[in-house]
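hey so u asked for the seq, here:
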Amino acid sequence: MGWVHDVPEDDLYEHEGFTVAVVADGSEPEPLRFPVKGHEGITTQNSGWWLYNGTEGRPLAVAVRGGCECGWRSADTFPLDFDDEESTEGWEDNTGPFAAWESEHIASLLGTAMPTELREALATVAAKMREHATDRPLVTLAAIGHLEKLVGDLAPTAGAAARLDGQTWTSIGKALNTSRQAAYQRFSRFLAPELVSGPND
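ran it, C-alpha cells below
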C-alpha cells in the first residue's frame, strides 16, 4: 500500500505515492511477474522496491526514488536498506522518497512547493541548528531569535500578498500547515477590509 494525501477537499486521491526501485544505470526496472496461487497460468505483477534484491535472476536495486501513480518520479535518488523498510521509504521520519513525494509532487499540486534552493537552504539551517542545540545552546537560541524576527516581518507581507493574489484562507492555512481559521486570525488584521471577508472563504 502506498501513501495517500488524505485531505478530502484537496481531492488528490489519484496521486498515491510509493517507493520506486532504481537499478545501476539509473532506470526503473520492469515489474516482476508472479503466479497467482490456485490459478494455473495466471500471473500478477509487482514492482515493490524490496523485490529487486538480485536473487532468482531479478535486477538488483542500488537506490530508490519517490514515485506517484500519475507517473511522477523524483529527480533525486535515495539510499536503500533491504533490512529497513521504514528508513528506506522515509514515511516514518518524513525523509527520502516519501518526503520527495510530499514536498515536491503533492506540494506542487497544492501550489506550495518551495524552489529547490530555498528548500536546501532551510535544510542546511535546520541541520546546523540541530548540530549546535546542545553543545552551543546560546548560538542556537540567537539563531532562533533571528528566525522568529524574520518570520514576524515576512509572514504578514506574504499573507497579505496571498490574499491579493486571490488565495483562500484554506489555501493560506495549508501552506502554513495550519487551519483556515488560524490563517484568518493570523493575517486578517494586516489586510484592507475588502480583502478580509470571512475565514470560511
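The first strand starts at residue 17 and ends at 23. The radius of gyration is 22 Å.
lmk if thats what u needed
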